[in-house]
Amino acid sequence: MDPAGALWIADSDHNRVLRFSPDRVAPFLRVTSKLPRSTSKSKLKIRGSALDSNVVTAVRYRLGGGAFKPATGTNF
Fold first, then answer.
1. How many CB atoms lie within 10 A of CB 58?
2. Would you say residue 66 lies in a domain?
């Protein structure tokens, strides 16, 4: 990696060097459903959309400071 955050990879099979620029645009998440301040339900449906300058391939969530978990029922 260089100081600007780009990743450089030597591709000796094709006699070239590849440069991958860092993604500097943060993804955008828009929640469209009304959310309760608290709940005791074991499931909660949240509607919204996720956008990125690249392709969105996964949506994850976390509760409080817990571990990130994959969201189910997502469409790509």
1. 10
2. yes
Cα(65)–Cα(37) distance, rounded to whole angstroms?
Answer: 17
Structure tokens at 40: 């005791």
DSSP secondary structure string, 29-69? EEE-S---S----S-----EEEE-SS-----EE-STTS--E
pLDDT, one tens digit per residue, over 36-46 is 888 888 888 88
In a domain, 6, yes or no: no
Question: pLDDT tens across 23-36, in order?
Answer: 778 888 888 999 88
In a domain, 65, yes or no: yes
Are 59 and 50 in contact by the 8 Å Cβ rule? The answer is yes
Question: Tokens 């990743």 — which residue?
Answer: 7
